[in-house]
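Data deposition worksheet. Section B asks for the primary sequence of the deposited chain exactly as it was used as input, without tags or linkers unless they were present during the calculation. Section C holds the resulting structure in token form. Section D is free text for depositor observations; keep each observation to a single sentence. Incomplete worksheets are returned to the depositor.
Section A, Depositor: J.P.
Section B:
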Amino acid sequence: ISNKRPLDKSNELKTEEFKTRKKESNMDGRWSKRFTWPDELHRDFVSAIFDVGLKHSSPSTILEHMPAHEQITSERIKSHLQKYRLHRTKSKKDFMGSYHASLNKFQN
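Section C:
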């Protein structure tokens, strides 16, 4: 004889609802909504990178060169810097590919 109770589907649904609510609410700081960088802040971010230099840029130096903003944190700058460097690398590769293709057309 088993002592286990039969599965209650409504209980599973309540558990899923709780997980969803936990992610939406910011109870313990781990779950937060995605931050979207406004154009103005992104311009300030890029300007700070040009002031410091991409090779020497770190979240703390960028934060020092950006105007104070209540939503900007070192973690957000770190994430944005990673994405910026990745996108810049891809853009450079795309540019070089199209440049060589144009150059070959011009020479032929």
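Section D:
DSSP finds four helices and no strands in the chain.
The longest helix spans residues 74-107.
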